């Protein structure tokens, strides 16, 4: 008999399984003929991959979203994106609000873990604000996009396209209904900046905006918020400059663009590389050096408690800070006139190592399977994109074998739920009552 109390003591396991359950339900629905545009089942593996990509807000696709899915199928994909973006526990708990029921301690534990919060204080109010803020951002984004899309596609289709792409952008999913992402709109400032703004807001994390609204003064912001804002800004600027520099002579990408379009393309790709799979140019034509640079941005990803993936900006920041502090001989790790606790350093190192293990192993397996068809750089790009829940591809996703698709499905789940969370869900708690004697190890 299942011991529910014992399961509730492992919130990481419940959070992981909640994503798996949503994916499986989505797979069953998307496998139905009604979900496909030609009224024929898309196939279990294709449905599973799409449901995983949508729920994990990745954006990798094995079939063209615009052409292969019916309106019903696209609505299901949109629902999966919304659930995955805000988190399964957050949306499941929201159902209690609408039903007028109170959220008990067990559910509060799950909400705390799913949103990476440090305290139970005001957790219900915070969750309500997260949902309200997200819906407001998506609504404003849809309004802005509709200014362009309604004149192009008509009232009903224009509104539908605006809502879909606003939710997809805010949730850092990258699914599109245009058929070729926003390549046809690469010079449209309104569409580019609206999508970029939604991605950045969704990727900064709910805690950051809650802190900003609460403090209203930069000096009073928490270390987490300052670090997330600093790393995000730095990566956006560096990513934009490097993309332009590396691709400036590429006739297949931005060489023939004017200055405005060049800057816009650089900023857009720097933004989406963090965790959203849109693209305004053909990524299959970019230089390998550019692809590697984008992989680094993917790996770092968005911020904690956000709709994005990656090891997270604050994890990257903590690792860089601790490295410099060690090189300087400091015994305390400090940033922005605040000390960083050692357990955060340990967790950051664990997240980095788990991420590297997953990416290395997955890349090796997929490269071994696909070695006769695709280059290693393209396979590596695909795995980085899956892990960081980015969704950008160099055009090889649909050509991969079923076994490679299954590997990427596992990678996407690790990337969205969190490597630390999934690993902890699998291994469980192993805290001993005793400790061994110290031993010496030479490193470096």
In terms of topology, how is this protein built?
Elements: H1 4-8, H2 11-30, H3 44-55, H4 65-68, H5 71-86, H6 88-99, H7 105-114, H8 123-153, H9 155-170, H10 189-204, H11 206-215, H12 223-247, H13 259-275, H14 288-300, H15 313-327, E1 334-335, E2 338-339, H16 342-369, H17 376-387, H18 402-417, H19 419-427
Antiparallel strand pairs: 1-2
Radius of gyration: 22 Å
Helix content: 55-70%
Averaging pLDDT over every residue, what do you get?
86
The low-confidence runs, each spanning 5 or more residues with pLDDT under 50, are none
How many separate helices? 19
* N/C terminus separation: 50 Å
User: Strands of the biggest beta sheet: in what spatial order?
Assistant: 1-2
Strand content: under 5%
Please trace the helix and strand order, writing H or E for each element: HHHHHHHHHHHHHHHEEHHHH
Q: What do these coordinates show?
A:
Helix 16 (342-369) crosses helix 17 (376-387) and helix 16 (342-369) runs antiparallel to helix 18. This protein is globular. By secondary structure, it is mainly α. It has helices at 4-8, 11-30, 44-55, 65-68, 71-86, 88-99, 105-114, 123-153, 155-170, 189-204, 206-215, 223-247, 259-275, 288-300, 313-327, 342-369, 376-387, 402-417, 419-427; strands at residues 334-335, 338-339. The chain has a two-stranded antiparallel sheet. 65% of the residues lie in helices and 1% in strands.
List its salient traits:
single chain, 444 residues, mainly alpha, 1% strand, globular
